[in-house]
Amino acid sequence: MHLPLSQLAALAATAPLAFASPRLAPRQNQKVTINLSQKYQTIDGFGFSAAFQRANLIVNLKEPKQSQVLDLLFNTSTGAGFSIVRNGIGSSKDSSNDYMNTILPVCPSTPDGTPNYKWDGKDSGQLFLSQQAVKYGVSTFYGNAWSAPGCMKTNGNDANGGQLCGVSGTNCRSGDWKQAYANYLVKYVQLYAENGVKVTHLGFLNEPDFTASYASMLSDGNQAADFIKVLRPTLDRNNLTDVGINCCEATGWSVANQHAQQMISSGVEGMIYAVTSHEYTSRIGSPMRTKAKVWQTEYSDLNGRWSTAWYSNGGAGDGFTWANTVFNGIVNANLSAYIFWEGVQDRATNNNNNEKLILIDGQNYEVSKRLWAFAQWRVVRPGAVRIGASGGSNLKSAAFQNKDGSIAVVIINSGTGAQTVAVSGLGAPAEGQTVKAWVTDNSSDMKEVAVTVAGDGTASASVTGRGMISFLRSAPPAAN
Ligand SMILES: *[C@@H]1O[C@H](CO)[C@@H](O)[C@H](O)[C@H]1NC(C)=O
Ligand SMILES: *[C@@H]1O[C@H](CO)[C@@H](O)[C@H](O)[C@H]1NC(C)=O
Ligand SMILES: *[C@@H]1O[C@H](CO)[C@@H](O)[C@H](O)[C@H]1NC(C)=O
Ligand SMILES: *[C@@H]1O[C@H](CO)[C@@H](O)[C@H](O)[C@H]1NC(C)=O
Ligand SMILES: *[C@@H]1O[C@H](CO)[C@@H](O)[C@H](O)[C@H]1NC(C)=O
Asked: What is the mean pLDDT of residues 108-130?
């Protein structure tokens, strides 16, 4: 979503043997048990966007604030440790308002004419942001076009809906622009590569079930499939076999499900990396019926006024609400990625609402607790496999085995009272293996807390009421 708001309608239960003396054991009010052999989805990461020139707010910050904001977003020891950046691929002729300018402001007169690409080296501030993210080790960059350039569309405009000329149901006098659009997206990936950023995923639609007054292009899953049949081989011919195609950024989960079923029946399921959905018009329910991965790629509270509260009666912008929102997607719907909407935004836009994680106001910034809710997930690194976790009343738990062998356990205390949580099933620690834990609540932001480790590996720490705690047991020492 974007502008204006008025357009928006919208280790299982068996206890391992305890070797520690009962006198030394911590008080254990609640037990969460990990099951290392119960394996679910692989996690690609957590992220945000700085589309529509929001990245320029970071570009324009002076040091040390610029580095502080970048640390808040990407640092894996002091910030949210985000691992995915979703960049908007511009389709507008210029940068008026907050529009993202395209690399093809004027099309050739015919679809097979030679395109005159214009690269400004900035990409609405997103190239700078991406290059900084690379320095923090981010390796997942999702380039997502809201629309094709207007000259390739049925309505001759990148805004106000319209469709890509050449997909089923269109009949443009100017011809079939599917191949030209695919070449254009390849060019974008190549330009980023030349500037040190490897685009790993490509999307060519945004909310294609919604006609917006800004960049937007309508499509259903069958029309998307028509284009995917051109885009996939075009990427492959250009040596971009490892760039994944994501589709279709529906406004909500129920439309995303329709897209998925249409893509399956059109025979392109095997050509896509992830089915992507937003959560504005319908929230994420049960897992989607698809063999592709599933990402939630954009959601935020569009209506609430700027809030930095962790918990204020469950408001839509509360940090605690976001802790639960991400949890729902990852645990109840098997998502491989959860991406917030804007990472940063100014005060003036949309009445200073909650669609951002950090408010950047000139040279000052303010951080919401939503950012710290995401930070609690930073112990889960790209490539982690979700494993079994259960137990404890008023506790929601999720566990993951990272690629390096470390184990991350993310727990939400839904109760109002503090609880000591004992995580069992980790197995006895090898020499040198440590367990750390961090808490976010009303008064703490990813604050490291004391952990007691019993002889069998059970790790205990205390979490406040309506608080969130993340445990990380380090990888076993390298065997050699
Ligand atoms: C752990 O998960 C595996 C695989 O699903 C299952 O077979 C096993 O029974 C589980 N262990 C416990 C203790 O529940
Ligand atoms: C979740 O993902 C795992 C691994 O991809 C899969 O085996 C499992 O069936 C999925 N669960 C559901 C409910 O779809
Ligand atoms: C993350 O923060 C730590 C602590 O301030 C700092 O030492 C480290 O350099 C930062 N990481 C990056 C990639 O800047
Ligand atoms: C494709 O990639 C391979 C391996 O990186 C490289 O050797 C080859 O030159 C590339 N081909 C083209 C057409 O870029
Ligand atoms: C957190 O703060 C809110 C007000 O911001 C208050 O209503 C709530 O009781 C506090 N919760 C705890 C556990 O301190």
From this structure: 98
- pLDDT attached to residue 478: 78
Per-residue pLDDT tens digits for 291-304: 999 999 999 999 99
Domains located in the chain, CATH noted: 22-38+387-473 (2.60.40.1180), 44-379 (3.20.20.80)
pLDDT in tens, 422-455: 999 999 999 899 999 999 999 999 999 999 999 9
Confidence of residue 479 (pLDDT cuts 50, 70, 90): low
Summarize the confidence of residues 153-160 as an average pLDDT.
98
- Ligand 3 atom closest to Cα of 67? 14
Q: Is the CB of 308 under 6 A from ligand 1?
A: no
Write a three-state SS string for the chain. CCCCHHHCCCCCCCCCCCCCCCCCCCCCCEEEEEEEEEEEEECCEEEEECCCCCHHHHHCCCCCHHHHHHHHHHCCCCCCCCCEEEEEECCECCCCCCCCECCCCCCCCCCCCCCCCCCCCCCCCHHHHHHHHHHCCCCEEEEEECCCCHHHECCCCCECCCCEECECCCCCCCCCCHHHHHHHHHHHHHHHHHCCCCCCEEECCCCCCCCCCCECCCCCHHHHHHHHHHHHHHHHHCCCCCCEEEEEEECCHHHHHHHHHHHHHCCCHHHCCEEEEECCCCCCCCCCCCCCEEEEEECCEEEEECCCCCCCCCCCCCHHHHHHHHHHHHHHCCCCEEEEEEEEECCCHHHCEECEEEEEECCEEEECHHHHHHHCCCCCCCCCEEEEEECCCCEEEEEEECCCCCEEEEEEECCCCCEEEEEECCCCCCCCCCEEEEEECCCCCCEEECCEECCCCCEEEEECCCCEEEEEECCCCCCC
- Grade residue 477 by pLDDT with cuts at 50, 70 and 90: confident
CA of 442 to the centre of ligand 5 (A): 6
Question: Is residue 467 in contact with ligand 1, taking CB distance under 6 Å?
Answer: no
**Separation of CA 155 and ligand 4 centre (Å):** 38
Q: Is pLDDT at 203 greater than 90 in this prediction? A: yes
